[in-house]
Amino acid sequence: xxxxxxxxxxxWRTLPTSRFLLGAPHYPEHVDESYWQRDAERMAAAxxxxxxxxxxxWHIFEPEEGRFDFDLFDRAIAVLAAAGxxxxxxxxxATPPRWLTAKYPEVLRTNAHGETMRHGTRQQAxxxxxxxxxxxxxxxxxxAAHYRDTKGIIGWQTDNELNTSTSDAYGAAALKEFQAWxxxxxxxxxxxNFAWGGDFWATKYDSFxxxxxxxxxxxxxxxxxxxxxxxxxxxxxxxxxxHDQVEILRAANPNWFITHNLGNLRDIDFRGExxxxxxxxxxxxxxxxxxxxxxxxxxxxxxxxHADMARGLTGNFIVPEQQSGFGSQPGFHTMTPxxxxxxxxxxxxxxxxxxxxxxxxxxxxxxxAEIYWMGIIDHDDVPRRxxxxxxxxxxxxxxxxxxxxxxxxRIDVGIAHADFDNQEAHKTYSLGLPxxxxxxxxxxxxxxxxxxxxxxxxxxxxxTPLKAYYVPHWVMWQDAWTAHLEAFAKAGGTVIFGAxxxxxxxxxxxxxxxxxxxxxxxxxxxxxxxxxxLAAPGASGLxxxxxxGEAESARRKYHFTLGNKxxxxxxxWEQVIPANGxxxxxxxxxxxxxxxxxxxxxxxxxxxxxxMGTYLTRELTENFFAEVFxxxxxxPLLPDLPAGVEVTMRENASRHLLFIQNTNAEPVSVAGIPAxxxxxxxxxxxxxxxxxxxxxxxxxVGAT
Length: 704
What we know:
Blueprint lengths: L20 E5 L10 H10 L4 E4 L4 H4 L9 H12 L3 E5 L7 H6 L26 H17 L6 E5 L14 H15 L2 H8 L27 H29 L4 E3 L1 E2 L10 H4 L5 E2 L6 H7 L2 H16 L2 E7 L4 E2 L2 E2 L7 H11 L2 E7 L24 H20 L3 E2 L3 E4 L3 H9 L7 H4 L1 H9 L4 E4 L10 E4 L7 H12 L3 E4 L20 H7 L1 E8 L25 E4 L2 E4 L3 E7 L3 E7 L8 E8 L2 E6 L5 H14 L13 E7 L4 E7 L5 E11 L4 E9 L4 E6 L3
Parallel strand pairs: 1-2, 1-11, 2-3, 3-4, 4-5, 6-7, 8-11, 13-14, 13-15, 15-16, 16-23
Antiparallel strand pairs: 9-10, 12-24, 17-20, 18-19, 18-21, 21-22, 22-23, 24-25, 25-28, 26-27, 26-28
């Protein structure tokens, strides 16, 4: 399997494989060896073909410095292989053994408050540390050499959920690495001082050796450019740490695939070396985590959003960890999937680009910080409904894998995504505004609930399959992207720019020309005369206090006229000046802004470019995008989609697979089904489809 390169990182990339990985992570070190044989037999009976081993077992592989012991895992791998279960082996660098942290305490992370992390948890080691990198290379070299020719090992996972617990590093070794990285980036201290605005608050440096870490409120705020570069450095260091391991593994056996499982996506630049080093990415999905449920309002929406965003980073992926049951650590927990829901969530991952999936985990641990993180098998070693659902899912996917593999997910409405600099730039100076990822939830939710094919992709991706493309307030903009969007519009596409796009340069300086900058101004046919903050929709707000005798609410809200409706604006306003030939779609209707343009549209070739001088709200999205989508000839994948029914299309030049899932606990009837064959039932369908509680269908459109 060829590794990715930065040239072929794309949302449209499929995994070049004829095999769909099915299985579960497994921890043979957590149980008596008498369990191993029946574990392997049960996996095989469930239709599993792969497991994942070893990510937290450095203390077993190397019980003393320089003394290696692979016996336990050798025997476990052999038992699995005899049952037809292949292994994805892991480098165990997320959990250094105690002898290492005791002998080399300098490898431990230091946080922004100067506190040193401790043994007894995970990811306590600093991946920027040269000493820790040396130990990481040593254990990886030993494992790669030992397992070079081992039957049953088909690939490797680097580390485990890099940066999920934290990515920050503020120790002495990290500072030296940061200073060296800056010297390589800027070559002269004068260039760094310009980039960071050293003439503000006398923050300039005389040498790279004087540079300190940016830490908020010590006692005030550091330069946004300083903060931006710190996170660029962390992303560089993360990619470098992984690259050390990848080089060793590829040299040992070029036939192994190499992947990584992502949890939280802190300080990783997915369009750079981190992704290019891998054959494909993996993403861990836990849709029923309570914090996500509370933030997004529904676990199914959160799952869909995360999967689509994940695919937008590099294309199709695998799921090394898919929620199977209740899960918890002492500080958080998930809800428990109801009967049928585990299978449905797994099907949603496949519908949104997964070309392999493993349920977490095979069996729960009886000790440690995840004793109530349930698996396919329960604590008492009894296989119950989760085992049955996993078996059903694996059997179904194995039967239709040749239809699934080689297809990508259809996108009609694209959302700009996967740019590390813009993700971090917002954090450096947020103004209290929603991040681009938060703001686009309104548009994504609208598409999700109405069955419109929506996805995420970078502006450097191929935009030709799209009909519309939304850019959500990316403050750092490259002129080359404008040319790409202009070509898309000329060919008939609709481009929508959010407010503030292009307002800062790569150094995080506010641009010195009229916003939104020359290239966007020319393409959209607008300039921005003035701007300001607004309270969030529904909030009382902190801005524009009322004059004496004036109703408080009258001074805290701005509206604009959209068609024949008055729509309340939220978060931000811009006074937009349209150029000749630019149409005004919405005007402000309050006080000094009364009559000024808020939203504009300019014809560009066969398409158009829209500029929105405000942030999306739910009300604005629902009132505005119906017209935009109608004009762009964007239609739902299914008409009149019932509430709680999720629909997605995977396709290529020869086939179109319509995934339909009932996320409700009650049966539903779905109308408007195109003629085709339901691959899960093996029956022809057309017109109306009945789905049971958490029921699923995969329809090959046009097949008989």
